[in-house]
Design a protein that fits this description.
The chain has 391 residues and is of the alpha+beta class. The protein contains five helices and 22 strands. It has four domains: 89 residues, conserved putative lor/sdh protein from methanococcus maripaludis s2 fold, CATH 2.40.420; 110 residues, Elongation Factor Tu (Ef-tu), domain 3 (Beta Barrel); 57 residues, Beta Barrel (OB fold (Dihydrolipoamide Acetyltransferase, E2P)), CATH 2.40.50; 62 residues, Helix Hairpins (Orthogonal Bundle), CATH 1.10.287.
Length: 391
């Protein structure tokens, strides 16, 4: 046989030997264990529902305003001859302290003249009375003397009152907001001198919706005392002051009694005692400060708090029943804050809802909870992903 033909015969022999060897090796390999393919349900976290009693804090905001503010105006004419060093913007003054003096010369002279005329009218009246008792004077002359005496007394009162008006002072302890007149200036009755406000109290107007009013015990208007307020809910005011969040205590004392026609809100008035801390310790609360308010609300009994993130849409939750099936429930929400929504109907205590976001849930959809997985891992115990709403 020629060498060329011999080469062609060796190729199929080699391939046959390789095939037999491969087959033998495959038979020697141990068989891989068979596994069943299961379609696993979605694993979700659950939250167990519990009832509780909640005290809702009502949020609002407003600007601190003085309770008493005065626009000072001159009551008599004349030149300003003296001004207190405290009569400047931000100056603090005491009750009845003289802040400004208008030239009293003309008014002092008027008092002297009125008092002299009164003395003369008194002498004339006394003489008329004596002669009348002796029968020498007519009744009309006595009446004229009596009228003149009364007019002279009134003139003295008016002159003294005008002299008193040359002193500019206020019947309260307060602070100067602005100064609009200065020494040497001539003023007439009605000329503005400045603006002041009392520092005993400050107030904040807090807008409340009708829904908010359901949780706030607003004082009855008939309970308002002479001080202009009543004992209402406590309020905590907060604002950033000098780079730090600062708190002040206040109290609702009244409402303004009307509903705003544009915003449809009712304004409650919170009062702060001694805002500038002139007679107490603590940080001052300047007039004009914008503050956030947390109003102490009334209690709600047997509500069910759920995490805000567990809500689907506006008013739905996903309940996981005993068969691990999803039930889409519509619930009644009493109130909600940034962390929780508080339910009054639609679910019951002891039920579980899922806090896991499910893209397209349907009624009857089966899920797995981490409770089941823990049971399979450790027969002696189980864990439910739940959260106490009060923690």
């Amino acid at each position: 046989m020629k060498p060329v033909h011999r080469k062609f015969l060796l190729i199929p022999i080699i391939l046959a030997i390789a095939g037999v060897a491969t087959f033998g090796l495959s038979k020697m390999k141990p068989e891989a264990p068979k596994q069943e393919s299961n379609d696993l349900d979605l694993l979700v976290d659950v939250f167990e529902l519990k009832t509780s009693t909640q005290s809702f804090a009502i949020r609002s905001q407003g600007t601190v305003r003085p309770r008493t503010e005065t626009i000072l105006s001159a009551e008599v004419s004349g030149s300003i001859v003296s001004i207190s060093p405290k009569f400047i913007a931000g100056g603090v003054f005491r009750k009845d302290e003289v802040l400004m003096r208008i030239d009293p010369t003309n008014y002092t002279v008027a008092v002297d003249r009125a008092e002299a005329l009164l003395a003369q009218r008194q002498i004339e009246f006394d003489g008329a009375t004596k002669l009348r008792s002796q029968g020498y004077r007519a009744e009309s002359e006595y009446a004229s003397a009596k009228s003149a005496l009364a007019a002279a007394r009134a003139d003295v009162v008016g002159a003294r009152r005008n002299l008193e008006r040359t002193y500019i002072r206020l019947p309260y302890e307060g602070m100067v907001r602005s100064k609009e007149a200065d020494i040497g200036q001539f003023v007439n009755p009605g000329t503005r001198l400045g603006i002041t406000f009392a520092t005993d109290y400050a107030e904040v107007r807090l807008p409340l919706t009708d829904h908010d009013l359901a949780f706030v015990e607003i004082p009855d208007p008939r309970e308002v005392t002479r001080s202009g307020g009543a004992d209402g809910p406590l309020v905590t005011l907060t604002a950033v002051q000098k780079g730090q969040l600062t708190e002040w205590d206040a109290q609702i004392v009244r409402t303004e009694g009307v509903v705003d026609e544009k915003s449809r809100v009712t304004y409650a008035v919170a009062r702060i005692v001694d805002p500038y801390r002139l007679h107490s310790a603590g940080p001052s609360l300047p007039i004009g400060t914008f503050v956030a308010a947390s109003i102490e609300g009334s209690n709600a009994v047997d509500v069910i708090p759920v995490p805000r993130g567990a809500l689907r849409g506006a008013d739905q939750v996903l309940v996981v029943n005993e068969d691990n099936e999803i039930e889409i429930r519509t619930v009644d929400i009493l109130r909600a804050d940034t962390d929780f929504a508080y339910l009054t109907a639609g679910v019951s205590a002891g039920e579980q809802i899922t806090t896991t976001a499910i893209e397209a849930p349907t009624n009857g959809m089966t899920v797995r909870t981490d409770t089941e997985d823990d049971r399979s891992d450790s027969p002696g115990g189980a864990r439910v992903a739940s959260q106490d709403a009060e923690e």
